[in-house]
Amino acid sequence: MTTVQVGHSDLAVLPLALGGNVFGWTADEATSLDVLDAFVDAGGSMVDTADGYSHWVPGHTGGESETIIGRWLARRGRRDDVVVATKVSRHPDFLGLAPDTIRGAVHASLQRLGTDHIDLYYAHFDDPSVPLADSLGALSALVDEGLVRYLGISNYTPDRIDEWLAVTERENLHRPVALQPEYNLVERGFEDGLQARAETYGLGVFPYYALASGFLTGKYRADGSPSGPRASRAAQYLEGRGAAVLPVLDEVAAAHGVSDATVALAWLRRRPTVVAPIASARSLDQLPDLLASTTLELAADEVAALDAASR
Question: By the 8 A CB rule, do 247 and 221 touch?
Fold first, then answer.
């Protein structure tokens, strides 16, 4: 399978990143380990998580996803075969981006992951209460120390990304190589300013909610089925753009003999600046549709029809 370089780094990944948000939440540990095995055996290389996953679940404290990935890495025994991305600022014990918080959080993540380095470390959410130079200095120091290979940005505004790169230049800090925004066929706000920043600063883009909380799988319809942890969020798309997108998605999928999810990810994969959509699988039978998106080539008229419906 063809790999894609991440920004100006030496990382190259399959154009699909496996989302770890479901590990220990809607996918139990045994299933999560099986999904990780199957993903890498099929040629996948990048696993995306965050230190806060899944603190929102009753009885969880955060870090559950990283812990499962760490157990899998130990079982598999081939750390260098995998690009591990995680994030800082949302673990209940390490909220925000103060320098001491960042340092404590990275060591906690490394311990849960059972590794001596993180390949791609994102600032998960902006923390305006801390001077940007302080946060970026602390993040850059992790690269100097070999604890982190590359830095990324997630959920920052275009203006704050400009500030980030200005501080990086002024203070001679390590530049970010990746950007992780919300982006999919029914949420295209990324194109209004963030895409231009990715192009200007050479950031490889990894869209999250690539399937719009499952809506773009096509399984959520007006009859209210199915139900589940993400159903209420997915249902919000049944009006407006979502109602226009689904028929076109169905038509293109039928023409190729693939699923709606495969088409939605294939469309996203080919957008400017996108390296790899992030998609999660809570069971093994969901994985083939995700992987199929890495090789599906959509015709120009199909892309145009999806563009028109989603605008």
Answer: no
Helix (H) or strand (E) holding 204: strand 204-205
Q: How far is CA 214 from the centre of its chain?
A: 14
Structure tokens at 88: 């800082």
Residues 232-266 pLDDT 10s: 677 788 877 788 999 999 999 999 999 999 999 99
Specify the pTM. 0.95
Query: How many CB atoms within 10 Å of residue 221?
Result: 12
CB neighbours of 148 closer than 8 A, spacing ≥ 6?
Answer: 106, 117, 118, 119, 120, 121, 139, 142
Gap between the Cα atoms of 25 and 22, Å rounded: 5
Nearest to 47 by CA among 70, 74, 75: 70
- DSSP 8-state code for residue 198: H
What DSSP element (H or E) covers 121? strand 118-123
pLDDT per position as a tens digit, 98-113: 999 999 999 999 999 9
User: Is cis: bond before 226, omega within 30 of 0?
Assistant: yes
Decide if 106 contacts 93 (C-beta within 8 A): no
Task: State the DSSP H helix or E strand holding residue 104, giving kind and residue range, or none if neither.
Answer: helix 99-113
What are the structure tokens assigned to 15, written together? 């154009």
